[in-house]
Amino acid sequence: MQNKKPFSLVSDSPQMTRRLGAAVAEALAVGDLIGLEGDLGAGKTVFTQGIAEGIGSNEPATSPSFVLIHIYTGRITLAHIDLYRLSSIQAEELGLDDYLTDAAGVVEWVERLSGLEPDLWIKFSFLSSEPERRRLEFSSLSERGETLLAAVARTVSND
Ligand SMILES: Nc1ncnc2c1ncn2[C@@H]1O[C@H](COP(=O)(O)OP(=O)(O)O)[C@@H](O)[C@H]1O
Ligand SMILES: [Mg+2]
């Protein structure tokens, strides 16, 4: 499916980025895959913390630096995958399909993943440290992606 309307916004704090993650979490369902692209320090893990909080996981999301996959349990299960240490990997090698049969997935460094397209792709860019600004560009790649994106758009318009 074509990305109908790429949606770009500026987050002006880690708290706002976390809140955007929580907004996605509200609409998140088993089988959904969210891909996060962006340099180190751009905010991918902060956003993932917001998703984990949003599903009601009481474990704080940290970068799973030594494990590839970290599981959070709340309203639904979330599989958090960080590909930082890999240059490329096939979804099949990760067993990603199996995870997605009973969990939602979020993948940091998603541009290194091949073989499976995320529903929602979010590109993070560093803007400034004072103030703490990051650009988030959302592209939905499926109907599910549209639903997740709508949840973000609602949160932003309610601010
Ligand atoms: N608007 C913002 N959104 C997210 N993080 C921000 C923002 N402004 C500053 N930061 C800081 O940038 C860092 C982002 O780290 P992290 O989420 O681990 O990055 P990544 O996972 O993309 O490497 C954190 O230290 C966070 O406090
Ligand atoms: Mg990270």
Can you walk through the features of this model?
This protein has a seven-stranded mixed beta sheet. A two-stranded parallel ribbon has the order 5-7. It is α/β, with parallel strands linked by helices. A hairpin with a 4-residue loop joins β8 and β9 (133-140). Helices cover 31% and strands 30% of the residues. It has a single domain, classed as 3-Layer(aba) Sandwich (Rossmann fold). The model has no long low-confidence stretch (mean pLDDT 93). α1 (14-27) packs across α2 (44-54). Magnesium ion (MG) binds at residues 44-45, 63, 82, 108. Residues 44-45, 63, 82, 108 line the site of magnesium ion.
In short:
This protein has 159 residues and is of the alpha/beta class. The chain has helices spanning 14-27, 44-54, 91-94, 96-100, 143-157, and strands at residues 7-11, 33-37, 69-73, 77-82, 89-90, 104-108, 113-114, 120-128, 133-140.
Number of domains: 1
Ligand list: adenosine-5'-diphosphate, magnesium ion
Biggest sheet layout: 7 strands, mixed
CATH level-two architecture:
3-Layer(aba) Sandwich
CATH homologous group name: P-loop containing nucleotide triphosphate hydrolases
- In angstroms, what separates the terminal alpha carbons? 30 Å
Specify Rg, calculated over alpha carbons.
14 Å
